[in-house]
Specification:
46% of the residues lie in helices and 1% in strands. The chain is mainly α and 305 residues long. It has a domain at 97-155 and 218-304: Biosynthetic peptidoglycan transglycosylase-like (Penicillin binding protein transpeptidase fold, Orthogonal Bundle), CATH 1.10.3810. It has a two-stranded parallel sheet with strand order 1-2. The radius of gyration is 55 Å and the shape is elongated. The protein starts with 73 loop residues before the first helix and ends in a 7-residue tail after the last helix.
């Protein structure tokens, strides 16, 4: 086997091979000046200070929602307040305009129904009534009603303060036997426009309606309304229904004795009877009959003519 050829030594005439150093190993000459890294950097300036980086704050954990109800936005509150104001204004207008308008309507047409009729109907009683003008009612009945309920009907303007004082004095002497001092005008206002009861609100409204009907109706219309809506027995309202029920005749044909008995049972029409009355109603009827003659002779019913 032949031996491998050994490398030949370079001859003196041949140039030594060039040796290349890597770029990073090259050392700059002492005469070379360093080049500026940027256009704004000039030789001899200090190195730029890096801008410190501020760390971003950590987000706060979500807060627990309060159980308190959030307040109403201002715009919604304004609308609510405006609605309330309109409602209050409407109620005030109705309170001021409604009663006078109703009184004016009932000056020319009869009321279709009253609160007392509704209450009695709920209790199971029938409603028997028939409207008749005052001219179709015998004058003995208005005279008897004035004698038994309101002797100064044609003199006062809705309120008889003398009768009120007498009623208060009588009630103090006899607490178990109360006596009323209401006029026919007050009773008409209560029967036509208000509910039964003795509370202060109803009494205040009764006084208001009494002033209205005295001003807008006059005495003749008040008596006509009273004789047509007053309760005269279970389910019986008005003089026409009462005359036909108790005496079998229209209100235009009743006599003074029958009129006195009808007037006598007005304070308690569900308890007292106009036909076959008890001893108390008989005595009361006699007194009212005698007083009705005085009303007729002295002209105490002149405001109805």
């Amino acid at each position: 086997m032949a031996e491998a050829d050994e490398p030949k030594a370079p001859t003196p005439t041949e140039d030594p091979p060039e040796v290349f150093a890597p770029p990073h190993a090259a050392e700059p000459d002492e005469d070379d000046e360093p080049q500026a890294e940027s256009a704004t950097e000039t030789p001899g300036d200090p190195a730029p200070v890096p801008t410190p980086i501020t760390p971003e704050p950590e987000p706060e954990p979500p807060r627990a929602r309060s159980p308190i109800v959030e307040p109403v936005p201002p715009k919604r509150t304004f609308r609510l307040w405006r609605t309330v104001r309109r409602a209050v204004a409407l109620v005030l207008v109705l309170a001021l305009v409604g009663p006078p308008m109703t009184v004016m309507v009932y000056k020319v047409i009869p009321p279709p129904i009253t609160w007392l009729m509704v209450e009695r109907a709920v209790q199971g009683q029938p409603i028997v009534k028939r409207w008749v003008p005052l001219d179709d009612i015998d004058p003995s009945l208005p005279n008897a009603v004035i004698a038994g309920e309101d002797a100064r009907f044609c003199e006062h303007h809705g309120f008889d303060f003398q009768a009120m004082q007498k009623a208060m004095a009588s009630n103090e002497r006899h607490p178990g036997k109360l006596r009323g001092g209401s006029t026919i005008s007050q009773q008409t206002a209560k029967n036509v426009f208000l509910w039964p009861g003795r509370d202060y609100v109803r009494k205040g409204l009764e006084a208001y309606f009494t002033v209205l009907i005295e001003t807008l109706w006059g005495k003749r219309r008040i008596m006509e309304m009273y004789l047509n809506v007053v309760e005269w027995g279970p389910g019986t309202y008005g003089a026409e229904a009462a005359a036909r029920r108790y005496f079998g005749e229209p209100a235009t044909d009743i006599d003074p004795g029958e009129a006195a008995r009808l007037a006598a049972i007005l304070p308690s029409p569900l308890k007292w009877k106009a036909v076959n009355p008890g001893r108390y109603v008989q005595k009361r009827s006699s007194r009212i009959g005698a007083a009705a003659g005085t009303v007729r002779r002295d002209g105490l019913a002149r405001c109805l003519r």
